[in-house]
Every structure is written in C-alpha cells, then in structure tokens.
Design a protein that fits this description.
By secondary structure, the protein is α/β, with parallel strands linked by helices. Helix content is 28%, strand content 22%. The protein has a six-stranded mixed β-sheet with strand order 4-1-5-9-6-10, with helices on both faces. Strands 2-3 form a two-stranded antiparallel sheet. The chain has a two-stranded antiparallel ribbon with strand order 7-8. The protein starts with a strand and ends in a 6-residue tail after the last helix.
C-alpha cells in the first residue's frame, strides 16, 4: 500500500536558543501551525505528520489538522540527533504499523514560516517530473558569498580567495563567474525514502534537483534575533499580499 506524498514536520520539545520555540506565538499563531497549514493546503501532499517527543506540540498539531501517530523515541530526540534518523523512523513506522510505503517524504522545518504553499507544490511536482532522488529548495548566493569572492587566510597569514586563487587575479565582476552558486534555504526537501536506508543515509541520494526560490522567502529561526527579523519579513510579505498594497 502506498502512503503517497507524506509531509513530515520535525519538532522537538526542547530548544536551546528559544525556549518552547515550536509553540511560541509567531504572528498570532504557534510557530509550528504556519508550517502545518502550508502542508495541509498543498494539493499534492497526501498526509501531514508531525514527529515530536512533546505532548504540548502533539496536542497543538492535532488540533490544527496534522497527524501525530506516535511520540518520537528518546534516542532520536536529543539536540545532537541528525534529521535522517528522524525521517527514517517515520518511514519505517508507516511500513511496520500500516503496511504503507511513502512515495516521497517532504521535509518541512517549522522554523521556516516564510515558505509559501506553492513552494511545496512546485518541489513535489519537480520531484515527480524529474524522477530524481531528491529535490532541494535553494536561492542563488549573493556574489560576496560565493567561493569566487570568499576570502580565506592560510597558516602563513596570506589572504586569498577560497581555493587559493590570488586575490589580484580573481574575478572582478560577478557576471564573469563560471557558474551560479546556490545556498540551501531549508524551505522544502523532497526525499525518496530509500535515501534514508542507504549505506550512507542522507536526504539527497545520488541524483538531486534544485528548485530556485526568491531569497526574500529565506528565514530560519534559531536564535531570539532571528525571530524578530523573520517576523519583520513575514509582516512585510503579508502586506505585499493584501489587495491594493503596493511594494
């Protein structure tokens, strides 16, 4: 039996940077609710499951329409736990308890409330259309963040561009860069479940497709200052979306 396209929203109860981060009110709702609502609104997502170890998070998630079929085991609920074991646990839980295999897992971090429903839908569409192992949302890196203009200092104190290029001989215009560089923005990952049980488990697999998204929607909340800045961007995006509002 196929479970279809399953969105997974990972949300631990503990948070070092911002206490109770996932349930703290953000723009009028608990932070995690924004991601739940986005996933539920995506037309090509079949199920929305929150993976959490916290009863409070579970109650809020269920109240807003998500599934919480289990509480995450302690061994994959510590701050050092990578995301791959969490996703593999969900995939195996579906297989063992429901006899269901997901076509793909859509990883949505609740700390990225600026994502839009169309970002999820476009990523899933690209996954199906491209027949890849994963789709990763990215934004083009600003020129000064690329390896071509990133400065490093070696053990002798000499400064060069990343990779050792002499700063006197590097590129002077971004238009001359040999290729675009992209940064993961953690908005959406679409992952083939087999990637998570490979010899080297990863989100990506061997064949990866990138979905480029406007940098305006990037916003990952980890520290208190992130919260304030992302909320400002959220309010700006909301004002742009109102009828009659000019930007």
């Amino acid at each position: 039996m196929s479970a279809g396209i399953v969105a997974i929203i990972p949300a631990r109860g503990g948070s070092q940077g911002i206490p109770r981060k996932n349930v703290k009110p953000f723009a009028g709702k608990p932070l995690i609710v924004w991601t739940i609502e986005q996933a539920l609104a995506a037309k090509n997502v079949d199920r929305v499951i929150v993976s959490t170890d916290g009863e409070e998070i579970a109650d809020i998630a269920v109240a807003h329409g998500a599934e919480v079929p289990f509480l995450r085991p302690d061994e994959i609920s510590v701050s050092s736990t990578a995301i791959e074991p969490v996703m593999h646990h969900l995939s195996e839980w579906l297989r063992l308890n429901e006899g269901a295999n997901a076509e793909a897992l859509v990883l949505l971090f609740p700390t990225s409330p600026l994502r839009q429903v169309e970002h999820i839908e476009d990523a899933v569409d690209l996954f199906r259309r491209s027949e890849v192992d994963s789709v990763v949302t990215v934004n083009e890196s600003p020129a000064h963040y690329t390896p071509y203009w990133t400065l490093v200092r070696n053990e002798q104190g000499q400064v060069s561009y990343f990779g050792g290029t002499d700063i006197r001989k590097g590129y002077t215009r971004r238009q001359d860069f040999p290729q675009k560089c992209f940064a993961k923005n953690d908005l959406v990952f679409v992952v083939r479940p087999d990637n998570l049980s490979a010899e080297v488990p990863s989100l990506y697999g061997s064949k990866v497709e990138l979905l480029e998204i406007d940098r305006l929607y990037e916003g990952d909340i980890n520290e208190p200052e992130d919260w304030d800045l992302v909320e400002l961007k959220f309010n700006y995006l909301a004002s742009r979306a109102k009828p009659g509002t000019t930007t």
